[in-house]
Write a structure and sequence with these properties.
This protein has about 375 residues and is α+β, with helices and mostly antiparallel strands. The protein has three domains: about 5-100, Orthogonal Bundle (Butyryl-Coa Dehydrogenase, subunit A, domain 1); about 110-205, Butyryl-CoA Dehydrogenase, subunit A, domain 2 (Beta Barrel); about 215-370, Butyryl-CoA Dehydrogenase, subunit A, domain 3 (Up-down Bundle). It is about 50% helix and about 15% strand. It is built from eleven helices and seven strands. Strand 3 and strand 4 form a beta hairpin.
Amino acid sequence: MDAATLTARARELAPVMAERAAEAERLRRLPDQTIADLRDADFFRAVVSTERGGHGLSPSVIPAVATEFAQGCVSTGWVTGFFMVHNWLVAQFPDSAQDEVLVDGYVLAPAALSPTATATPVEGGYTLSGRSPWATGIHHCNWVMLTGMVHDAAGAVVDARMFMLPLADVMIDEVWHTDGMRGTGSDTIVTEGAFVPAHRSISMLELANPASGVPFVPLLAAVAAAPAVGAAIGAVDAFADRIRTRVLAYTLGQEAKERPVAQMRIGRARADVDTAEALLDRTVRETLAGPLDPLAIARLRLGAAKAVEVSRTAIADCCAAAGGSVHFVSEPLQRFQRDVNTLSGHAIFDLDRAAESYGRLAVGLPSDPMQFL
């Protein structure tokens, strides 16, 4: 197995995922058959080491796969990308934790990164309580990862850590009633005093520069941005297809493709997509080239956030010029727009915050450690 083969498999499956996009929205999670197809095509073990039963591919394959799938179904690109990168994340935990979790050569696990749970040190580990939102793919998983703030006996925060728990140790609150990214099933994990042994946790600050040498923040940003870029590619293609056959309303049969303004919309949208792809490609390439100083990491996160903004703009411009009927729920363009509008709300794509982080470092001020830079 190599990256080119896996990316080609995603390209071949993307039309199938596009046909299931409406079903994923209705279910508010990916269809079981989609997960089965992804498993059969061996996406989940792609970046797991060969020693643990995987293919040992570079994480660079993850954004490539997510981009291909998102051209048909953004939710499929999002879930697949995160399930893949979370297997890379498991490899940053101690070997004893990997021994437990990677028994099948991979794991399906969401990672709720917002540190909203409370972790209390106890003998042998921690107890966790709280609500951990945004658990992408939770309905297809067998383990979960979530993040909590560790408090000492006096109640002071002393660390932020990520924890791994079997699904049986948590509850799921089905809150995922959204206008976009509905197929991701990103419901909320609930813990009530769940015990986690110490070896199944890692400090979030360690993930800034893990043993693998790949910093977590820009890798996460690239994986999360890829579905937006894929959606923009799909939207521009769908818009061009629509313009080729559209007859303008309230005219005597005028064809949209004859109008220079429609032609220019296609051209500008394509330029935006090319810009977003270039930003994503640079983020992936430089993240994996390492080593990176904090300023470089902040710049890559900023580039990924900008790629999402440009992708959202390209899709919006296509929808604005595609006519009112494009907003029927059967039309792919409106789904691309709703999905990317929702996706862009992810905290890592807060362009103001990303720009501030970069600017702060650029003028010589210290970084905020909770940016994990």
